[in-house]
Prior knowledge:
Elements: E1 10-11, E2 16-17, E3 33-38, H1 52-67, E4 71-76, H2 79-87, H3 96-119, E5 125-130, H4 133-136, H5 138-153, E6 157-162, H6 176-187, E7 191-196, H7 240-252, E8 256-261, H8 265-269, E9 276-278, H9 287-294, E10 301-304, H10 306-313, E11 324-328, E12 336-340, E13 346-351, H11 356-362, H12 367-373, E14 388-390
Parallel strand pairs: 3-4, 3-7, 4-6, 5-6, 7-8, 10-12
Antiparallel strand pairs: 1-2, 8-9, 10-11, 12-13, 13-14
Helix pairs in contact: 1-3, 2-3, 6-7
Amino acid sequence: MTPPDQPGSRDNGGGLRQPARLLERDSLPSARRVVVKIGSSSLTDQRGRLDDRRIDEITAVAAGLIESGSDVVIVSSGAIAAALGPLGLPHRPTAVDQQQATASVGQALLATSWSRAFGRHGRVTGQVLLTESDVIGRQTYRNVRSALEALLSMGTVPVVNENDTTATHEIRFGDNDRLAALVAQLLGADALILLTDVDALYTAPPAEPGARRIGEVEDVGRLAGVSIGSVGSKVGTGGMVTKLSAAQLASTTGTATVMTSVENFAPAVEGQDVGTFFPAHHGRRRSRLVWLRFATRGAGIVRIDEGAAQALGRRHRSLLAVGITAVEGTFPAGVPVDVAGPDGEVIARGLADFSSDELKAMRGRGSQELRDTLGERFRRPAIHRDQLVML
């Protein structure tokens, strides 16, 4: 059996594939599981129609990776963009119901295009449509992972997209960059390739004189002085900020990331010096804590006093009811909730052991008082330290 840090290995503790944690560009050809995300603007022409030439170009490179022994997952934007031309729409609709209807048409067109393109290389595709709620729930998160693993084991190419037909503003990923990073995390991918309409990250907008390509970023937090746009193309929803966030998520959880253009896809996976490379971080993170930090949003807010904040942050203790000052929102037991310090800043996220109504009755009370007034089970921590991650 290969050691836990080798490509394709599995963690004996949970049966989860661990990423290879590639630290150098020239190690990218060794990636044995690759997630490839393509933005809407990279898949459509100037009229808003799907560009079959682009899809064929991407598919040829992906098929080559599969032929060399790698698993490949495609995260494809473009469902709404694909339908703009056929429906005679000049731009992406703004109303949710029109977006959903447009996506319904476009998803069929997009899936057919990928199926035909991969079919020419003797590969079968499987469509996977997700909403954020699919990866927020612990059980559905596991179900998504199992389904993708099964598709890969059958030799198919999963084509993942956000289910824009049913998603609303409240349950959206917001962009496929984040979705791609989460897919890479849950599958333990060795590499994430973010294909966009610019060839790399630059020190300033590429059209400006003196703008220089940033070849490698070890820490996204160090880009404070870089001018980064946040608005996506007229056919998409993402922008450079979302791509940086996705790269940070992926690299933090062990997946090396390259941000570049479709034209540079082949040289990127060959390890050539194109685009912007984000090396994988060394440290291993427990799967549940990764899930809590990146794949969830708090169903409510538990506000705590300074003593409790110190206990969580410095002493890594569980959250006790005595330190809770307020509970906001309505939620059942067992769901992720945000924990805010006395200044209102969210400092942690964890799985609540009690419902919002129970926590409201428990707040500010010590363990003896809780047992005397509410019962023995209420002496348990409100959030156990093993179910909590600091943000």
